[in-house]
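Hey, resending since the last one bounced:
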Amino acid sequence: MATLDDDFAFVAVSAERANRRQRQACERVVDDPACSGRALARHLDLAYEIFEVHISERRAAYVGALDDTVRNDAIVEMRQLLWKMRKLQSNLDWLTAAQSPPLDLGWRYFVEDAARRLVAPRVELTVVPQAKASYATTSNPWEPLIDGWGGGIPEGEPTIVVVFLPAREETAGLLHPLIMHELGHAADSQHKIVEAIWDGAQKRKMLSRRFADAVTLWQKDSSLDALGAKDHVAERLMSWIAEAFCDSVAVHLLGPSYLYSFLVEVVAGNLDDPAPHHPPPRQRVRHILDDLDRLGWAPLMAQSDPVLDRWVRSWAGEGPEYGGVEKFLYWAIDDLHAVIRKATKDALSGGFFRPEPAEFAEVSELLAARIPPAQLRSGSPASRESIILASWYAALEAAGGGPTALPDASEIPELSELLPAALELSALASAWQPAP
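The structure tokens again:
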């Protein structure tokens, strides 16, 4: 006949086994100086160490229990602990991705440099291919668990950023500019940029009045009380601000390359439908174009693919009328666009990608000759931003130009090889530049 002691022992040993096996996977990475993802493994191991302590505490609670009700509660708690550990086990795939990165070396150099610039000088970036519909990111993912259940993350640990890449686009290098948008989320997580924008937004009289009206409207349409309705509308607005900020970051870092990647990945599937956490894509494209024009890209865009440029601009300014809370959110993002752009400029400290016609022409000439354009005639390394943009235009031309060329441009075989090679060589050339 089964006893409570047997039940508890069975669940406890199962939990200890799961914890032991998962810690071993982390420790193999932590103990190998040649391994990538060591900070990721250290944080994950801290989480498992916390679970180990809690298993011991549950054992002690069971042994000291005076009645069967308390013992049954201890068994339930141990089972819950086991399931939390098993859920955490899926994160071991991130360590696998760190050991076998999905990006070519040239792209890895580029996105890691951008992460150091945007997020923190000491940052560990891991790109994980997953069966997800879109790109996503998370920063210091286990920090709440480690802070809440343990002693916190040790001082001096790198900031951890994990970017999720749709596995279907793992080899589509011309779509990797979308990673810059995800790094904007990581920068916000690190520096509370959206929170600062929201704090300032609440001081704008018109926005505050319309926000209050939206809250009243949502309270009528939902079962929430006044505070719950206010929190709901505020949360949605902050999410929309975050997306607009990340778009602006990617545009200021990569110019038109981000627009073309965004059109392929986002606009092809949705144009006007707002989401709880995202403005409608048409509005986002309108703001992206505005930022590009302010950075001086309009002439080059019109010259490089006039059909595509006219097509985008022909529909970007139009759009449906929204109702309810979406009407307010849509208006608010338009109202805050200049504020968001300023926050982007502050985050990037003035280092934006602007047109350099001579460099762009030289890079384009080398690409046309199927030569990785890593170095200019002057001996200076070609900027990687120019290489990416010139590759986009070369791919568009090879695919026939115009909007219908966008989906196939990222599949041009020669450019799929030339682009990462050029990025890698440019990074190496930059590293070998003599000191001034």
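The longest strand covers residues 123-130.

Sorry for the duplicate.
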